[in-house]
Task: structure prediction
Amino acid sequence: MKVLKFGGTSVGSVNSMLSVKKIVEAVDDKVIVVVSALGGITDKLINTSKMAAEGNDEYEKGLKEIVNRHIEMVYTVIPAGRGREILLDLVNELLNELKDIFQGIYLIHDLSPKTSATIVSYGERLSSIIVATLINGAVWYDSRNFIKTEKKHNKHILDSELTGRLVRETFDEIPEVAVVPGFISTDKTTGEVTNLGRGGSDYTASIIAAALDADILEIWTDVDGFMTADPRVISSAYPIKELSYVEAMELCNFGAKVVYPPTIYPVCHKNIPILIKNTFNPEAAGTIIKQEADHSSKAIKGISSINDTCLITMTGLGMVGVIGVNYRIFKALAENGISVFLVSQASSENSTSIGVRNEDASLACEVLNEEFAKEIEMGEISPMKAESGLATVAIVGENMKHTPGIAGKLFGTLGRNGINVIACAQGASETNISFVVDGGSLRKSLNVIHDSFFLSEYQVLNLFVCGVGTVGGSLLEQIHGQQEKLKQERGLNLKVVGIANGHKALFTRAGIDLGNFRQELEEKGIPSSSQVLHDEVIGMNIFNSVFVDCTASEDIAALYKDFLKHNISVVAANKIAASSSYDDYAELKRIARQRGVKFLFETNVGAGLPVINTINDLINSGDKILKIEAVVSGTLNYIFNALSADMPLSETIRKARDEGYSEPDPRIDLSGKDVIRKLVILAREAGYRIEQEDVEKHLFIPDSFFEGSLDDFWRNIPRLDAEFEARRKKLEAEGRHWRFVARLEDGKGTVSLQEVDSRHPFYNLEGSNNIILLTTERYNEYPMLIQGYGAGASVTAAGVFADIMSIANI
Result:
């Protein structure tokens, strides 16, 4: 024998009603069908009764909608004939009773709990007789005759023993199909109508299944089963194949609304499995809940949450060592019908925090202040402190007890994403770790946990890319080209959720189509500014965030500090921040370490060459950098390699600009400023405190050429062609080459144009390549040499990409 329960959405429309008929009639066994009210009717009944009690004649409109909904359902799903006529008589009789009750409430302006319970019972009574008529051979039973409650603490609680006996007597002989209204019951003493609470139809089905030792309890709803998380918040959530009773109960208690929590105990006691199925997708496997579920895969099964949380904290030295304090707390709350779903207590016993629903918070504080009035008056305990606007998150899985470090990983992951845990609790069974966060961090918390505990198919990194010029554009193209491969081979989803240039900015949690990003930015973007970027990136409060700066903007670099403070990692091709004042540079590094995020700028020196990472590895392993010699301007190296009798200085500079090796204003490269910045960055990473002003510079172009406009520069620069050609000929005759060298030794920096012969490592440096010589305590006699492309959009973008990937590998 099977028990099938169908929720409000499953009987809420014509198509779903017909699906119920098809599902039930396909069962090759005796079956008891428990149904909820038509979807939305219970709320409509409650709201209409409130309007009537307020003397608002709009209640008649609500009643009319209720009447029309049921009459229309009968005419639509029940074929014309004798059966429909009998059903219409029953439905109209019930609706007339309901009309009389509403009119009475309207006249006396009073709505008692007894009357309210009677009103909402009509929803299940009406839907169940419609379903009983719809299904061939079905017999209707009135659950008010066998589901019995008793009053305790102002609440109607199931009398399990009496109900079990009455269920067995009622179904001593079970028809092929029995239909029962869920949710409703009667008081065992007075006989007045009561109910089992919102979601109580699940409970009705479970009570019947347990009493009759059913083979299985099937809960038919509008989802494919228990999900790993709320799919409305996490798009990558998916159905859980198996859960134990304990896991299901924990998920239900913390907000997973698939099953009404009391449902699980009766069938668990009898070891009857529960199958969650989707009425609208009956082919889906669903979720099976049983005693022993599969625990072989992931450490946690799912995440649940309650976004309606208030934390009440009681503190005071008068609690320390005093026996019975917690007894008094929970006794006082229980006597007032207040449910506590989380408890967190300091080991010193001077602080206890309890989680309650927001609607219960005011009464809970009042009750506890009254209970401990004497201690409060004496100053032993402080008045109750209530903190609202919070959310409770629970991670659930019986396999956690076999996996060390779950709690550490959980709180470490939350911390790296800037999520502050206000209170936490974990039972000794290790099935559930619960914690309280600010309500505004709930979405972020759920996403980052789902991602980090491999409940998601892919690990997600959310990228904001600022600057879509040569480097930024190339980076986005590279990401687009690698996205699918990274998903398939690395389980990594690089999702670009923001793109900005100097004019437009585009932000979307769903991710931007990189195959068409320029058009999307132009058509859908909002006006861009550094303030817009600041507010949008921080305001999205999105998990695993990385801000990628492919600009040369000082205003954008100024945003890094706030981004890092909000646990947003920063990857910068922009050299301004790392080469600014030492104190600012050091503060950015400190904030990144403190917040557990990354501030990476490998491409600041050598484009895609592993220079900074290598220096860090040497330092971290105990080595000391003694000297750095480097050609780190791909632009200048390109210029000096391109100089020839046929290509004068002015032409090589113009060619460097045209081919993208220099800045649009090549004076930035020719002034040595770019090289100085790079030397400062290398020196700082090597452990030296140095400012740009500390670097001694010897330039090869007179200062006067850097004055005036860019047009002035292009007009004047040919004046140096003849001089440089004469010097080049002499150099060529001597077998030497020019190299613009950055040098750090004894903590002092210089940049200058040097002549190197064929024995020098810099002699054969071709094109725009860079070369860095590192002399260290270990690499002393034979310095370490790093050489390769040091300029160009694609290699710089690849270096930025590598920094992004290193964040993904945290």
